[in-house]
Amino acid sequence: MPADGPTEALVRAAQGGDTIAMNDLLDLLAPYVGRICGPIALEHGPDAAQEALTAVFRHLHTLWEPAALRGWVRRIATWEAVRVTRRAADPSGRQAGRRGAFAAVEVADLPAPGDPSLAADVRDVLSRLSPEHRAVLVLRDLEGLDEREAAALLSVPESTVKSRLHRARSNFRKAWTR
């Protein structure tokens, strides 16, 4: 979803109170937000995407530079996906500790590339990672951000992103090969 002239004009119109432009903008953003929230929040992906789009709707007036739309939305979607997943895991609000923990995955025969069960297997393995680890994987491997950019987006030190990425990839590999 490139931030081009028409998209920037749509943002400006939505910021000016044009409800049709706002609706069109949210329709344009929905697939992108879903691609970010889905792998992080897993079964709570639709809820996270809805929360992210609601936040975009409520706070669009704070976006000073329409050309920065994609990064701004990426940040909101990532934060909401992690928040919704944490809230769903512990409705009391306490942060239950799953750091580094993952259950064993039994994969008898790996499916061939293109096999629909492959997506289910990847999703199953992803579910063994913490939301923070999934967020780093999505930002690095799907969104193509470097460690510095991911650290800024997640508001954590670059060393934290590097260690989370290392652990996430290692745990994913271990779970996948079991």
Task: Write a concise synopsis of the structure shown.
Helices cover 68% and strands 0% of the residues. With 178 residues, it is mostly helical.
Question: Can you put this structure into words, describing what you see?
Answer:
By secondary structure, this protein is mainly alpha-helical. It folds into two domains: 1-95, RNA polymerase sigma factor, region 2, helix turn helix motif (Rna Polymerase Sigma Factor, Chain: A, Orthogonal Bundle), CATH 1.10.1740; 97-178, Winged helix-like DNA-binding domain superfamily/Winged helix DNA-binding domain (Arc Repressor Mutant, subunit A, Orthogonal Bundle). It contains eight helices and no strands. It has helices at 5-15, 19-41, 45-59, 69-89, 116-126, 131-142, 147-154, 158-177. The radius of gyration is 18 Å and the shape is elongated.
* Beta-strand residue fraction: under 5%
Q: What's the rounded overall pLDDT mean?
A: 82
Largest sheet: none
Strand elements, count: 0
Level-2 CATH architecture of the largest domain: Orthogonal Bundle
Shape annotation: elongated
Q: Bin the helical content.
A: 55-70%
* CATH homologous superfamily annotation of the largest domain: RNA polymerase sigma factor, region 2, helix turn helix motif
Could you give the order of the helices and strands?
HHHHHHHH
CATH topology of the largest domain: Rna Polymerase Sigma Factor, Chain: A
Number of domains: 2
Radius of gyration: 18 Å
Count of DSSP-assigned helices: 8
Poorly predicted segments: 95-113
CATH class of the largest domain: Mainly Alpha
Compute the separation of the termini in Å.
37 Å
